[in-house]
Amino acid sequence: MCAVMFDHRTPHLVQLCLELYIRREYFGESQVKNLDIFVQDGCWYGSYEYEPLEDHDPLRAECFSPCNENTLDVAPECKGTGFCVMFADDRVLRERWTTALDNVMCHIPHENVVCTVFFAVSVQDGAEEAARHCQQLLDAHSQALVRHRSLQRVTFIAHGIPDGPHTFTYRQCHGWREDTLIRNIAPLSARRLELHRLMNYDVAMYPTPFKDVHVFRATPKKKNPSYLESRMFARVFLSPRDLGVEAWTEANEIDAGHMVAKCFSALEFARNDNTFKYPTYNHIFIKMAELTFDVTNMKRLFEHVGKSYRQRLSYLGIAEVELSFNVRVSSGCIPFRVIISSPSGYNVVMRTSYEWIENGMVCLHRAETSEDIALTTTLTSGENINDVFFEAKDGGSCGSSSNNNNGNGSKGSCGATLRTLLRTASKLSALRSLLPSRVTTAVAAAAASEATDDVEESVPLGPYPMVSEKQLRRLQARALNTVYAYDWPQLLATVLSNQWMQHACGRGFSRECIPKELVKAKELFLDAAGDKTLCEEKRAGHIPCGMIVWLVTLFPPAYYNSDTDDAGSRCIVMVANDITFQSGSFAVPEDDVFSAASELARRLRVPFVYISANSGARLGLSVEVKKRFRVAFSATNEVEYLYLVPEDYEELVRLGVRLSVEPRQEAGEGEMRYVLRGIIGGPDEYLGVENLRGSGLVAGQMSKNYGEVPTISVVTGRSVGIGAYLNRIGRRVIQTDDAPLILTGATALNRLLGAEVYSDNSQLGGKQVMVRNGVTHWNTKNSYRSAEALLVWLNYVPPTVDPLRCCPRVLVLPHLDPVDRDVTFTPSSNEAYDPRQLVCGVGSKLGLFDRGSWTESLEGWAKSVVTGRATLGGIPCGIILVETRLTRKYNPADPADPTSASSFVPQAGQVWFPDSARKTADALDDFQHERLPCFILANWRGFSGGMRDMFDEVLKFGASIVDNVRAYSCPLFIYIPPHGELRGGAWVVVDPLINHNGAVEMYCDLTAHGGVMEPAGVVEIKFRENDIRELIRRNNPHLASLDPKKLREEENRLLPLYRDVAVRFADLHDTPVRMEAVGAVRGVIPWKDSRRLFHVKLQRKLKELSVAASMVEYKDRCSPAERVRKIEAARLREDAP
């Protein structure tokens, strides 16, 4: 526009440009009246009056002048007079500035006057030089500014500067100094963008190619702020023209996406700038004029937009998005705010409110439900309106907004106030009819509420606060690629909320049935003064530490009984490292807390969950001694000893620092020195070996936990040393990406090796290592997915563990899958298939277990065996499957060994290798400690017995399978699936006779086979060529008449055919008929009917083992297997006719 205005060829367009500038400047906020544009003395002038749009102001609950200042330190410009002056260049500006100012101001009676000056620079100056010239102009004509006290601000718009035009604003309230915060921003645009709310920060504009988006780098106004406290503020003003729509269009999802996309692009430009460290706690503000949203569907719209841009929001570190717009109702417009925030980075909270003037301040009043409006309209009640009406009628005073002394003025003021209150009441009534009721939104609000903040009814629209201490710790944890420990209960609540929504949709029950509080986390503290037990409050002598303990009560949707409307619950003990405290390191206080939490979990017999993000055992030096010790050198300038002077030694003794010293008097009358022989440290200093002893304590506690209660570790950040060991000792590990488990860091190893061998810690213990070696059971992309995996695993584990009984909690799945149905997926007899399809089916073909219940574990390790968990009729079970396809084992190269190379080793299907045998044994051990029934769909041809596999201890791990089958005390079903086979050593290690608890039963399909060797191998040994020739002669008597030579030829011709006959004959010895006849299997179960039959057998076995456990409690002296046999015999007698 400036290019047109200062183009000498188009002087006729100047008037249009000035009018366009003035009207656009006040668009959407004020009404421009009495606009007059004229030329005088070669300069263009434009004068006008402006006043606020009556129906766009905040709702008022009191007598309040529109021009009254609120508590924010910003000059109000809601009503007044403005004028524009256009000078040809800066030379003309300097010559005619005072004259032009005097000529205009003498004709303006209004108290609030603003001035805008357009000029072109005559020489090529930069922006700083132009700003300096404007400042010099005002300083040189300061007397004129003093004469015209009604002039509030002057804005210079300079044309001809590179990357221009540039805008410089000077205010009377700032002593006519430039307001650098809004440089290159029109003053009213700055007001729209609410830049005054950045007053708690030192702000600098960050230039981007996106001129309509204003980006600011903000540093908090405090001493020594952390870089994590810095923020980026992106602010944009939008009108219908920007979106290409008509005025007062209700924005849809696409429009909302376009709004935020502009800010995203500007922030992404800043993020790609390597000259500064991009912050991770940023804010977007969008001001809309003559654009609105449908209030009734607004929340759903923003949820969809948030899901679409979730990754980009996280990438750009955007923690809060604020939208300001007007909601149109019949009686006018309601200023409305939507603030969408995610302080923790995982849970999104949307707050909706309307602007409300209360006690002379603009406040944001909550407007999420219709009840929120009804609760806050007391100031617009009939009594208050009547009071104002009668005061106006009687000529009484009405508040302090009237400056008139006569009665007519008071009546006019009160009349205006009455109209304002009536309009406010009408607007609130209309808004209340648009908002949903509290009943329909209670569930979603409970699920979405952050545990950090209590929602207030009304809050002042004040400056943006600096980053709180808790949020700073969140940012510190996020910088270390993990989640702040105290956010874990809320993260679990968020995941549970989404799971409840899925169940409500799948099972068809109302969302009103969802509990309002899905997670109850009670933090526990160590009673250091007593017997080191946990209590619910901090007691005297409490020592701060970086280990947090909660007793958590969960309300999972799988426990909900829709028939009785009962939401069942379960408890867990959850322990977490606070990585923001001493880097999450383990010292004596942390070890004591971990030990006490372990004892609590074992006493309650509930699962023990460890959230791991730490730096291993704490190491340190005595700080007080470090500040005071001195060094004595020998005559040859070698270090002789370290010592303390008497005053320092006495001070350390006073502080309680324990030392081993040797007093020494220097020769002659030298000073007394205390030679240091050993440093023990202060009472609260944990420096070395005591932390290692504590590490041993927690390692023993975790080992005991695994033996007595279900344990699981969630690795959300780096875990070093004892932290890594605890994860492995607890066995089950959920590892998040970028969360390595290491013993020694990459930097320390590189220093030891003398070369940059390892690039980072992930190369040592990241997912590419820990998933493939079987340490990590589940690998997830982020902590949200880790929380999902944790809750899924907890569903399979019983709420409390009984060491004698197997009592799995029957789960209710999101989708109904009846027990009494056929298994419709059938594997092919001559083709390899995915064994997981036996469990969950494929497509429309259903598997043995409940649809949608399968969860695999240890997926990346020992792929020739598949392990996981699923439910059968809602009963959680452990599953072990056999891979029938060829797999490849990866052996990585070691960067520290230049001669090593990575390789892939092929592994055949249906064969146990050392790693898959270990995986099978570990899975059985895990299922036993989880007190889960187990199904092994056995389809092994045997163990791999090659030299390499024997060297890799396949024999040892095969023996471990026997050990764990023997000790299994929950129902264990071995089933040979269709066309499956179980032979040789593979049969031996899972045979039911191994088990001494009567818990193992073996079944097979009609097409299954079992034997010592495969038929072809048996034929090679037991049906040799002579036996085959005898069979040929026996089956073909006419061959006896042939001469020996022809007989031999005929036998040779028939030999291949009869070899197949021999194999078939040998195969008849491996059929289900023989296996059942000799008692090798308990029965034959057709695959089609296996689901309904195994469900009955599982329920029966659970009851048998429960009765057997009761017999133990009554001190029955029989062995476990004998007790089960007695129970089975009694059941058979009852079933007999």
UniProtKB/TrEMBL annotation:
| Family annotation (Pfam families) | ACC_central, Carboxyl_trans
Using the record's annotation, list all stretches that form the CoA carboxyltransferase C-terminal domain: 818-1104
**InterPro entries in UniProt:** ACCA, AcCoA_carboxyl_beta, AcCoA_COase_cen, ClpP/crotonase-like_dom_sf, COA_CT_C, COA_CT_N
Biological processes per GO annotation: fatty acid biosynthetic process
Report the residue ranges that make up the CoA carboxyltransferase N-terminal domain in this protein. Answer: 463-809
Q: Which GO terms describe its molecular function?
A: acetyl-CoA carboxylase activity; ATP binding
Q: Which domain of life is it from?
A: Eukaryota
Q: What is this protein called?
A: Acetyl-CoA carboxylase
Organism annotation: Trypanosoma rangeli SC58
Q: What is the lineage of its organism?
A: Eukaryota, Discoba, Euglenozoa, Kinetoplastea, Metakinetoplastina
